[in-house]
Amino acid sequence: MAETVVMLSTIAAASAAGGSSYTAAGFFRSPDTPSRPIMVLVNCFTVRSEHRTADVAVAGLEETQRNVATGLVESVELPAGPAVVAESRKPVRVPLGEGTIDLDEHSITAWIPSPGVVTAVAITSNNTEDWEHVKDLARGIFETLDWNEPASSSGT
Question: Would you say 62 and 73 are in contact if contact means Cβ atoms under 8 Å apart?
């Protein structure tokens, strides 16, 4: 549990510094070992982009993610449109009191282009034992992403 709290504090600070426009945390019981907690963070942020089409943006995102992600990178079709989903895992050493805690930070991020911006929805967890369950949860979240149509200003 201490590792989970440390991760939450670290990620929340990094999210704010990195420009996250939305951060949420969820706590769950492991489906495999109910006494083991799983913490999942959701971060959303946008990056300005001057892509001409969603396909051009996806091609660029896929190339970039293949160079920076440490896991699977794939182009997918979401309700919001074409996107790139990238997985990563990195070791993190977090200071705690007089010592440190070594964690593996796992993430899976959907990069979704729209006119003028790319929206990223990142799901992270330090729970290695249940990472496959977290990835299933993340993919379920990604499958719900869609754009709202702007309200008509014509009054009709």
Answer: yes
Picking from 94, 90, 76, 88, the residue whose alpha carbon sits closest to that of residue 143 is 76
Cα-Cα-Cα-Cα torsion 134, 144, 70, 118, nearest 10 degrees, comes to -150
Interatomic CA distance for residues 31 and 107, integer angstroms = 19
Q: The pTM is what?
A: 0.82
| pLDDT tens figures, 100-146 | 888 899 999 999 999 889 999 999 998 999 999 999 999 999 999 99
Distances (CA, A) of 46 to 22, 39, 101, 115, 138: 10, 24, 31, 12, 18
User: Which domains, ranges and CATH numbers included, belong to the chain?
Assistant: 2-129 (3.40.1000)
Strand blocks (E) in the chain: 22-29, 37-48, 73-78, 81-96, 99-114, 117-125
Here the tokens at position 24 are 């949420």
Residue pair 120/113 in contact (Cβ under 8 Å)? The answer is no
